[in-house]
What we know:
With 491 residues, the chain is mostly helical. It folds into two domains: 411 residues, no CATH class; 61 residues, no CATH class. The protein contains 21 helices and three strands. The chain has a three-stranded antiparallel β-sheet. A hairpin with a 2-residue loop joins strand 1 and strand 2. 44% of the residues are buried.
Amino acid sequence: MNNHNNQTFIFDGKTKLFTIALMAVGAVCLALSYFTDADHLHIRFWTNFLQNSVFFVGIAFAAVLFLATHTMAWGGWFAIFKRIPEAMMTFLYPGIIIVAILGGCVMMGAEGTELLYLWNDKDYLQPGTEHFDALAHHKSAFVNPLNYLLTAVVIAIWSFFAFMMRKLSIKQDSTPFSVTKSNDLPEITKKIRLYSAVFLPIAGFSSAYAIWQWIMSVDTHWYSTLFAWYVTVSMWVSFCCLMFLIILFLKSRGLMTGFTKEHMHDIGKYIFGFSIFWTYLWFSQFLLIWYANNGEETQYFFIRFEQFKVVFFANLIINFITPFFVLMMNSTKRTLGTLGFMAGLLFIGHWLDFYQMVRPGVWYNYEHKSHIGMLHNSHDAHHNDDAHGENTYKFDGGKAVLTQDTHHNDTHGSEAHGHDDHAHGHDSHGHDAHAHEKQFLVGVHIPGVLDLGSMLGFLGLFLFVTFSSLSRASLYPKNDPYLAESEHHHS
């Protein structure tokens, strides 16, 4: 379809079925991660749910941020494709429900949520108890179940601005373009600017509040003044990548004909520039913590470097080294295939970034609580003594290992499985227990099939909401005052 004025996306049955299939895959993977996890507290399920919820809600938030910042900066180059971020930000609406469910589970103390956040475990917060943690108790005035649940209200506030900005933008399509002065703006554009101006300071403070609650408080003893910036930039890069991939999909259907290499080049510059900024924040945070050598801070990077090496280095290779060498050249930012590949790679890379923000912290909580005796081994709590081929977690030198027991001789051998003799394949009576141990666990130290499948489920829901929104309005904002500038844009 070559006529700009009739650019309408149809969310057809085939595309709808594809997004529903992705959601079904995600639902199955989440269910399997809940019911088949070797630990009865469902670490894998809760971390997958938290990571993907925050990741995709963050992308929707970045879409509103993208529109508001460009509106306030008098940006006109993006007008030709502004309906894409407008549609992406509508994921905030189901995001309210998703985060409210997560917050409700935290508030009710659902089994396993105390491993997401140690500040949600009363054993740490009661002065005078055996495991009282003074720092967790001190921080609980800010990070607590009620404040956590209030992050759903924060998303509702973001959603209000997203709703009003999109409503006005669509209304503009049916409003004749006319102004009273040559240098004036249409009334609708002025209203969009007003909502953008109010949104930006609210977004700045509230996003930091939400990020501290959702992610930084996973590592209860740790804090960083750069962390909110770091996470927001990761969300921004993920948004730019997914937005470009959606534009490529629409162009493959003969839509978005006004989107040129000049627009693609600028999106490529955003992806490249903010990838470098992300690295700057990562290194600044790492350098300050390494230089200060404060135990409460260094543990954050210590566990990620010691036990999560693959994710730790893959994060830097994918999200910094690759875009640095590939996207530094102008030609790659103007090549559809190269930029499309990099957008897909960096989208996965920043999902992996969120994985290393969440999973090691929760795993540290699990190791810590098991080490001081606050958790019973899941094998003791949930498996019969004559079980065959069961996967359980145990600890060897402070590190969690996965033990697969293929034979148990007697009750006494089962009860002694946590001791050193059993760690070498023998029970307390010297019998061979045929135990196989692994310290590198798929699904813990690197994402496994269930983790990737869970991400695809959330991606399917995100695309379903985005495509549904796209189909309700023309892709061509014919009365946008900056449209002519966008159509003749040159980088």
